Amino acid sequence: MDNRMDIANVLADIRAVRAQMAQSHRIQAEALPQKPGVIEGTAGRQAVTEAPGFGDMLKQAVSKVDQMQQSASDLRNAYVKGEPDVDLAKVMIASQKSSLAFQALTQVRNRVVQTYEDIMKMPI
Predict the structure, then answer these.
(1) Which of 22, 55, 86, 94 could form an SS bridge with 72, CB 3.0 to 4.6 Å?
(2) Which domain holds residue 48?
């Protein structure tokens, strides 16, 4: 039962990161000056916004995984030092979250490499 709760927490974290990325992109798009690519609509001018690039999303995912691993490492070190506010359950949950995030990132990387190789094998 705990595994399901941990997976649900990780999925909730992923959804939160996705929402943050979408929100930060909206804020950046609103801060930019009006571009020539506008659409005339019934409600006035609406700016055409671009989706965040894959490279940017990948960088954010890598930094999030790095933060999770650093947090797990800090908790582990605090537990080893014997700090009273850190218990073994927190350490293990953080470790499993960072491990799962790293495995997911590795799978994404493998898919990207496989797709790149498939594209390179296509006849011209």
Answers:
(1) 94
(2) 2-121
CA distances from 120 to 7, 107, 109, 117, 123 (A): 36, 20, 17, 5, 8
- Please give the average per-residue pLDDT across 48-67, as a whole number: 84
Give strand ranges (E) for 24-121. 38-41, 44-47
Three-state SS at 39: strand
Structural tokens at position 22: 């979408």
Mean pLDDT of the chain: 80
CB 102 within 8 A of CB 65: yes
- Please state, in angstroms and rounded to a whole number, the distance separating the CA atoms of residues 33 and 28: 10
The total number of structural domains in the chain stands at 1
Q: How far apart are the first and last CA of the chain?
A: 52
Q: How many Å apart are CA 107 and CA 52, to the nearest integer?
A: 21
Joined tokens for residue 2: 């705990």
Distance between CA 120 and CA 124 in Å, rounded?
9
